[in-house]
Amino acid sequence: MHAETILTVLGTLVYGVALAYLLLAGAAVLGGGRALRPPPSSPPEPVSVLVPLHGPFPGLDACLESLFGQDHPCFELVFGTCDPHDPALGALEAVGRRHPACPYRAVVTPVPPAGVNPKVVNLEALEPHARHELLVLVDADIVLAPDHLRRVTAPLHDPATGLVTCPYGAALPPRAGLWPRLAALYIGDWFYTSVLVASLVAPDAHGFGATLALRRATLGATGGLAALRPVLADDHELAARVRALGLRTGILETRARTMVTETTFREVWAHEKRWLGTIRALDPWGYLGLPAGLTTVPLLLGLALLGGTPLAWGGFGVLVLGRLVLHFCSWDRSRSDRIGAAVLLLPARDLLTLAEWLAALVARRLRWKESLLTIDGRGQLEDNDP
Q: DSSP of 306-345, one letter per residue?
Protein backbone atom coordinates (compact mmCIF):
# COMPACT_ATOMS: atom_id res chain seq x y z
CA MET A 1 0.00 0.00 0.00
CA HIS A 2 1.36 3.37 -1.02
CA ALA A 3 2.23 5.93 1.62
CA GLU A 4 -0.32 8.34 0.13
CA THR A 5 -3.08 5.74 0.48
CA ILE A 6 -2.11 5.07 4.09
CA LEU A 7 -2.26 8.77 4.91
CA THR A 8 -5.67 9.05 3.25
CA VAL A 9 -7.01 6.12 5.24
CA LEU A 10 -5.63 7.50 8.50
CA GLY A 11 -6.93 11.01 7.80
CA THR A 12 -10.37 9.69 6.91
CA LEU A 13 -10.39 7.60 10.09
CA VAL A 14 -9.47 10.64 12.19
CA TYR A 15 -12.26 12.69 10.63
CA GLY A 16 -14.69 9.79 11.02
CA VAL A 17 -13.98 9.37 14.74
CA ALA A 18 -14.37 13.11 15.32
CA LEU A 19 -17.65 13.19 13.40
CA ALA A 20 -18.97 10.16 15.29
CA TYR A 21 -18.21 11.89 18.58
CA LEU A 22 -19.96 15.09 17.46
CA LEU A 23 -23.07 13.11 16.48
CA LEU A 24 -23.09 11.23 19.78
CA ALA A 25 -22.48 14.42 21.74
CA GLY A 26 -25.22 16.23 19.86
CA ALA A 27 -27.70 13.47 20.65
CA ALA A 28 -26.67 13.52 24.31
CA VAL A 29 -26.97 17.30 24.65
CA LEU A 30 -30.28 17.58 22.81
CA GLY A 31 -31.72 14.70 24.84
CA GLY A 32 -30.24 15.73 28.19
CA GLY A 33 -28.18 12.55 28.47
CA ARG A 34 -29.75 9.91 30.67
CA ALA A 35 -30.72 11.89 33.74
CA LEU A 36 -32.79 10.90 36.75
CA ARG A 37 -36.50 11.49 36.44
CA PRO A 38 -37.98 12.91 39.68
CA PRO A 39 -40.98 10.97 41.03
CA PRO A 40 -44.41 12.60 41.34
CA SER A 41 -44.25 15.61 43.64
CA SER A 42 -44.09 14.83 47.35
CA PRO A 43 -43.97 17.21 50.32
CA PRO A 44 -40.39 18.49 50.69
CA GLU A 45 -38.48 17.15 53.69
CA PRO A 46 -36.22 19.32 55.89
CA VAL A 47 -32.71 19.63 54.46
CA SER A 48 -29.28 20.46 55.90
CA VAL A 49 -26.87 21.99 53.40
CA LEU A 50 -23.15 21.57 54.17
CA VAL A 51 -20.83 24.08 52.53
CA PRO A 52 -17.02 24.08 52.93
CA LEU A 53 -15.49 27.56 52.73
CA HIS A 54 -11.93 28.37 51.75
CA GLY A 55 -11.23 32.07 51.47
CA PRO A 56 -12.89 34.77 49.38
CA PHE A 57 -13.07 34.84 45.60
CA PRO A 58 -14.71 37.03 42.95
CA GLY A 59 -18.40 36.18 42.87
CA LEU A 60 -18.58 34.73 46.40
CA ASP A 61 -21.52 37.01 47.28
CA ALA A 62 -23.53 35.72 44.31
CA CYS A 63 -22.88 32.11 45.38
CA LEU A 64 -23.92 32.80 48.97
CA GLU A 65 -27.01 34.72 47.86
CA SER A 66 -28.11 31.74 45.77
CA LEU A 67 -27.81 29.47 48.81
CA PHE A 68 -29.76 31.77 51.11
CA GLY A 69 -32.34 32.42 48.39
CA GLN A 70 -33.61 28.84 48.06
CA ASP A 71 -37.40 28.48 47.92
CA HIS A 72 -37.38 25.23 49.92
CA PRO A 73 -39.77 25.55 52.91
CA CYS A 74 -37.43 24.06 55.51
CA PHE A 75 -33.65 24.10 55.18
CA GLU A 76 -30.57 25.16 57.10
CA LEU A 77 -27.10 26.14 55.93
CA VAL A 78 -23.97 24.91 57.74
CA PHE A 79 -20.69 26.49 56.64
CA GLY A 80 -17.20 25.47 57.70
CA THR A 81 -13.66 26.79 57.42
CA CYS A 82 -10.44 25.81 59.16
CA ASP A 83 -9.38 29.45 59.43
CA PRO A 84 -11.19 31.47 62.14
CA HIS A 85 -10.07 34.65 60.35
CA ASP A 86 -11.20 33.52 56.90
CA PRO A 87 -12.46 36.65 55.04
CA ALA A 88 -15.24 34.48 53.61
CA LEU A 89 -16.83 34.55 57.06
CA GLY A 90 -17.31 38.31 56.79
CA ALA A 91 -19.03 37.89 53.43
CA LEU A 92 -21.19 35.16 54.95
CA GLU A 93 -22.28 37.39 57.81
CA ALA A 94 -23.18 40.21 55.43
CA VAL A 95 -25.36 37.94 53.29
CA GLY A 96 -26.87 36.34 56.39
CA ARG A 97 -28.02 39.74 57.65
CA ARG A 98 -29.92 40.21 54.40
CA HIS A 99 -31.75 36.91 54.99
CA PRO A 100 -32.74 36.93 58.68
CA ALA A 101 -35.35 34.21 58.20
CA CYS A 102 -32.80 31.68 56.86
CA PRO A 103 -31.09 29.66 59.62
CA TYR A 104 -27.36 29.24 59.18
CA ARG A 105 -24.25 28.66 61.26
CA ALA A 106 -20.53 28.90 60.69
CA VAL A 107 -18.19 26.29 62.15
CA VAL A 108 -14.42 26.49 62.58
CA THR A 109 -13.20 23.07 61.51
CA PRO A 110 -9.88 21.30 62.24
CA VAL A 111 -6.84 22.08 60.11
CA PRO A 112 -6.46 19.10 57.73
CA PRO A 113 -3.30 17.04 58.21
CA ALA A 114 -1.00 16.20 55.31
CA GLY A 115 -2.01 13.39 53.00
CA VAL A 116 -5.79 13.82 53.29
CA ASN A 117 -8.49 15.58 51.31
CA PRO A 118 -8.96 19.00 52.96
CA LYS A 119 -12.55 19.43 51.78
CA VAL A 120 -13.55 16.09 53.26
CA VAL A 121 -12.05 17.03 56.64
CA ASN A 122 -14.11 20.21 56.53
CA LEU A 123 -17.35 18.41 55.65
CA GLU A 124 -16.70 15.69 58.22
CA ALA A 125 -16.59 18.33 60.95
CA LEU A 126 -19.81 19.93 59.69
CA GLU A 127 -21.97 16.81 59.69
CA PRO A 128 -22.52 16.67 63.50
CA HIS A 129 -23.92 20.22 63.32
CA ALA A 130 -26.56 19.25 60.74
CA ARG A 131 -30.00 18.75 62.25
CA HIS A 132 -31.85 17.03 59.43
CA GLU A 133 -31.87 13.60 57.84
CA LEU A 134 -31.53 14.87 54.29
CA LEU A 135 -28.05 16.19 53.53
CA VAL A 136 -26.92 18.22 50.52
CA LEU A 137 -23.18 18.82 50.11
CA VAL A 138 -22.48 21.90 47.99
CA ASP A 139 -19.19 23.54 46.97
CA ALA A 140 -18.92 27.20 47.98
CA ASP A 141 -18.29 28.40 44.42
CA ILE A 142 -21.63 27.19 43.02
CA VAL A 143 -24.47 29.49 41.93
CA LEU A 144 -27.81 27.73 42.37
CA ALA A 145 -31.26 28.33 40.93
CA PRO A 146 -33.92 29.08 43.59
CA ASP A 147 -35.56 25.65 43.18
CA HIS A 148 -32.29 23.71 43.45
CA LEU A 149 -32.89 22.09 46.84
CA ARG A 150 -36.43 21.10 45.94
CA ARG A 151 -35.27 19.44 42.73
CA VAL A 152 -32.20 17.55 43.95
CA THR A 153 -33.98 16.12 46.99
CA ALA A 154 -37.16 15.05 45.14
CA PRO A 155 -35.66 11.82 43.67
CA LEU A 156 -34.65 10.73 47.17
CA HIS A 157 -38.32 10.08 47.96
CA ASP A 158 -37.79 6.90 45.92
CA PRO A 159 -36.20 4.38 48.34
CA ALA A 160 -34.18 2.91 45.46
CA THR A 161 -32.37 6.22 44.85
CA GLY A 162 -29.38 6.78 47.09
CA LEU A 163 -27.63 9.85 45.72
CA VAL A 164 -28.39 12.73 43.37
CA THR A 165 -25.72 14.88 41.76
CA CYS A 166 -25.76 17.50 39.01
CA PRO A 167 -23.55 18.76 36.20
CA TYR A 168 -22.95 22.48 36.08
CA GLY A 169 -22.32 25.32 33.70
CA ALA A 170 -20.03 28.32 34.11
CA ALA A 171 -20.69 31.64 35.83
CA LEU A 172 -18.32 34.55 35.30
CA PRO A 173 -17.57 37.31 37.81
CA PRO A 174 -17.85 40.93 36.59
CA ARG A 175 -15.14 42.19 34.23
CA ALA A 176 -13.74 38.72 33.57
CA GLY A 177 -10.63 38.70 31.40
CA LEU A 178 -9.20 36.17 28.94
CA TRP A 179 -8.24 33.41 31.37
CA PRO A 180 -11.59 33.25 33.19
CA ARG A 181 -13.31 33.13 29.79
CA LEU A 182 -11.14 30.22 28.67
CA ALA A 183 -11.85 28.47 31.99
CA ALA A 184 -15.56 29.03 31.45
CA LEU A 185 -15.31 27.44 28.00
CA TYR A 186 -13.74 24.36 29.57
CA ILE A 187 -16.79 23.99 31.82
CA GLY A 188 -19.75 25.09 29.73
CA ASP A 189 -18.54 23.66 26.43
CA TRP A 190 -16.34 20.60 26.98
CA PHE A 191 -17.14 19.42 30.54
CA TYR A 192 -20.92 19.72 30.35
CA THR A 193 -21.01 17.91 27.01
CA SER A 194 -18.70 15.16 28.32
CA VAL A 195 -20.96 14.53 31.30
CA LEU A 196 -24.06 14.11 29.15
CA VAL A 197 -22.20 11.84 26.73
CA ALA A 198 -20.86 9.72 29.59
CA SER A 199 -24.34 9.47 31.11
CA LEU A 200 -25.51 7.62 28.00
CA VAL A 201 -22.89 4.94 28.59
CA ALA A 202 -22.94 4.86 32.39
CA PRO A 203 -25.97 6.80 33.65
CA ASP A 204 -25.27 6.21 37.34
CA ALA A 205 -21.47 6.51 37.45
CA HIS A 206 -21.20 10.16 38.44
CA GLY A 207 -20.66 12.33 41.47
CA PHE A 208 -19.90 16.06 41.37
CA GLY A 209 -19.01 18.37 44.24
CA ALA A 210 -21.44 20.97 42.88
CA THR A 211 -24.16 18.94 44.61
CA LEU A 212 -24.32 15.60 46.37
CA ALA A 213 -27.75 14.94 47.90
CA LEU A 214 -28.35 11.87 50.05
CA ARG A 215 -29.78 10.70 53.34
CA ARG A 216 -27.67 10.67 56.49
CA ALA A 217 -28.34 6.96 56.93
CA THR A 218 -27.03 6.30 53.43
CA LEU A 219 -23.89 8.29 54.12
CA GLY A 220 -23.31 6.33 57.33
CA ALA A 221 -23.79 3.00 55.53
CA THR A 222 -21.02 3.92 53.06
CA GLY A 223 -18.54 4.36 55.92
CA GLY A 224 -19.19 8.07 56.37
CA LEU A 225 -17.12 11.02 55.31
CA ALA A 226 -14.14 9.79 57.33
CA ALA A 227 -13.72 6.94 54.82
CA LEU A 228 -13.19 9.53 52.06
CA ARG A 229 -10.26 11.30 53.73
CA PRO A 230 -7.52 9.66 51.60
CA VAL A 231 -9.44 10.06 48.31
CA LEU A 232 -8.85 12.94 45.89
CA ALA A 233 -12.13 12.48 43.97
CA ASP A 234 -14.30 12.29 47.08
CA ASP A 235 -17.50 13.07 45.15
CA HIS A 236 -16.92 10.24 42.66
CA GLU A 237 -15.95 7.81 45.43
CA LEU A 238 -19.02 8.65 47.52
CA ALA A 239 -21.28 7.92 44.56
CA ALA A 240 -19.48 4.61 43.97
CA ARG A 241 -19.93 3.64 47.63
CA VAL A 242 -23.64 4.42 47.45
CA ARG A 243 -24.00 2.20 44.38
CA ALA A 244 -22.18 -0.56 46.26
CA LEU A 245 -25.09 -0.51 48.69
CA GLY A 246 -27.41 -1.45 45.83
CA LEU A 247 -28.87 2.04 45.52
CA ARG A 248 -29.26 4.10 42.37
CA THR A 249 -27.23 7.25 41.77
CA GLY A 250 -27.63 9.67 38.91
CA ILE A 251 -27.43 13.15 37.50
CA LEU A 252 -30.17 15.76 37.45
CA GLU A 253 -29.93 18.97 35.43
CA THR A 254 -30.70 21.89 37.75
CA ARG A 255 -29.21 25.05 36.16
CA ALA A 256 -26.34 25.01 38.67
CA ARG A 257 -23.25 26.96 37.62
CA THR A 258 -19.77 27.11 39.08
CA MET A 259 -18.24 30.54 39.57
CA VAL A 260 -14.99 30.77 37.62
CA THR A 261 -12.46 32.06 40.15
CA GLU A 262 -9.21 31.62 38.20
CA THR A 263 -7.79 34.90 36.89
CA THR A 264 -4.32 33.86 35.64
CA PHE A 265 -2.87 31.23 33.35
CA ARG A 266 -1.17 29.52 36.31
CA GLU A 267 -4.44 29.19 38.22
CA VAL A 268 -6.34 27.87 35.20
CA TRP A 269 -3.57 25.38 34.39
CA ALA A 270 -3.32 24.08 37.97
CA HIS A 271 -7.07 23.71 38.44
CA GLU A 272 -7.78 22.00 35.14
CA LYS A 273 -4.73 19.77 35.35
CA ARG A 274 -6.00 18.58 38.73
CA TRP A 275 -9.38 17.78 37.20
CA LEU A 276 -7.77 15.88 34.35
CA GLY A 277 -5.29 14.13 36.63
CA THR A 278 -8.20 12.91 38.74
CA ILE A 279 -9.97 11.54 35.65
CA ARG A 280 -6.77 9.80 34.56
CA ALA A 281 -6.39 8.15 37.97
CA LEU A 282 -10.02 6.98 38.04
CA ASP A 283 -10.43 5.89 34.42
CA PRO A 284 -7.09 5.56 32.61
CA TRP A 285 -8.55 3.96 29.47
CA GLY A 286 -11.35 6.48 29.18
CA TYR A 287 -8.80 9.22 29.70
CA LEU A 288 -6.96 8.21 26.55
CA GLY A 289 -10.06 8.94 24.49
CA LEU A 290 -10.66 12.47 25.79
CA PRO A 291 -8.83 14.27 22.92
CA ALA A 292 -11.52 12.96 20.52
CA GLY A 293 -13.84 15.57 22.02
CA LEU A 294 -11.42 18.41 21.22
CA THR A 295 -12.47 19.04 17.64
CA THR A 296 -9.51 21.29 16.80
CA VAL A 297 -7.12 18.38 17.41
CA PRO A 298 -8.61 15.95 14.83
CA LEU A 299 -9.17 18.90 12.47
CA LEU A 300 -5.47 19.75 12.40
CA LEU A 301 -4.40 16.12 12.38
CA GLY A 302 -6.80 15.29 9.53
CA LEU A 303 -5.58 18.22 7.46
CA ALA A 304 -1.97 17.19 8.01
CA LEU A 305 -2.71 13.63 6.88
CA LEU A 306 -4.99 14.44 3.94
CA GLY A 307 -3.25 17.57 2.67
CA GLY A 308 -5.25 20.06 0.62
CA THR A 309 -7.53 17.49 -1.05
CA PRO A 310 -11.28 18.05 -1.52
CA LEU A 311 -11.85 15.30 1.08
CA ALA A 312 -9.72 17.20 3.59
CA TRP A 313 -11.56 20.51 3.15
CA GLY A 314 -14.97 18.87 2.93
CA GLY A 315 -14.39 17.02 6.19
CA PHE A 316 -12.96 20.18 7.71
CA GLY A 317 -16.14 22.12 6.91
CA VAL A 318 -18.44 19.42 8.26
CA LEU A 319 -16.52 19.17 11.54
CA VAL A 320 -16.36 22.94 12.03
CA LEU A 321 -20.10 23.26 11.48
CA GLY A 322 -20.82 20.35 13.81
CA ARG A 323 -18.61 21.78 16.54
CA LEU A 324 -20.28 25.19 16.34
CA VAL A 325 -23.76 23.68 16.59
CA LEU A 326 -22.67 21.52 19.53
CA HIS A 327 -21.06 24.49 21.27
CA PHE A 328 -24.18 26.65 21.13
CA CYS A 329 -26.43 23.76 22.20
CA SER A 330 -24.17 22.86 25.15
CA TRP A 331 -23.78 26.48 26.19
CA ASP A 332 -27.53 26.98 26.19
CA ARG A 333 -28.24 23.70 27.97
CA SER A 334 -25.68 24.39 30.72
CA ARG A 335 -27.07 27.92 31.29
CA SER A 336 -23.50 29.24 31.23
CA ASP A 337 -22.89 32.99 31.15
CA ARG A 338 -22.53 34.40 27.69
CA ILE A 339 -19.02 35.09 26.37
CA GLY A 340 -18.50 37.56 23.56
CA ALA A 341 -16.88 35.99 20.48
CA ALA A 342 -16.66 32.65 22.28
CA VAL A 343 -16.35 30.68 19.04
CA LEU A 344 -13.12 32.49 18.22
CA LEU A 345 -11.64 31.18 21.45
CA LEU A 346 -12.60 27.55 20.84
CA PRO A 347 -9.39 26.55 18.97
CA ALA A 348 -7.22 28.06 21.72
CA ARG A 349 -9.38 26.35 24.32
CA ASP A 350 -9.00 22.96 22.63
CA LEU A 351 -5.22 23.28 22.33
CA LEU A 352 -4.89 24.39 25.97
CA THR A 353 -6.94 21.38 27.08
CA LEU A 354 -4.74 19.10 24.97
CA ALA A 355 -1.61 20.52 26.63
CA GLU A 356 -3.16 19.98 30.07
CA TRP A 357 -4.19 16.47 29.06
CA LEU A 358 -0.60 15.65 28.10
CA ALA A 359 0.75 17.14 31.35
CA ALA A 360 -1.78 15.26 33.49
CA LEU A 361 -0.95 12.04 31.67
CA VAL A 362 2.22 11.68 33.74
CA ALA A 363 1.66 14.03 36.68
CA ARG A 364 1.42 12.61 40.18
CA ARG A 365 1.58 15.93 42.03
CA LEU A 366 -1.49 18.12 41.58
CA ARG A 367 -2.06 21.55 43.07
CA TRP A 368 -5.23 22.19 45.07
CA LYS A 369 -5.38 25.86 46.05
CA GLU A 370 -2.31 26.32 48.33
CA SER A 371 -1.74 22.56 48.74
CA LEU A 372 0.37 20.28 46.57
CA LEU A 373 -1.16 16.82 46.63
CA THR A 374 0.41 13.54 45.54
CA ILE A 375 -1.81 10.77 44.17
CA ASP A 376 -1.07 7.13 43.53
CA GLY A 377 -2.32 5.07 40.60
CA ARG A 378 -5.72 4.52 42.26
CA GLY A 379 -6.48 8.18 42.92
CA GLN A 380 -5.53 7.89 46.59
CA LEU A 381 -3.73 10.72 48.34
CA GLU A 382 -0.28 10.18 49.79
CA ASP A 383 1.57 12.07 52.49
CA ASN A 384 3.36 14.90 50.77
CA ASP A 385 5.74 17.65 51.77
CA PRO A 386 5.32 20.55 49.28
A: HTT-HHHHHHHHHHHHHHHHHHHHHHHHHTPPP-TTHHHH
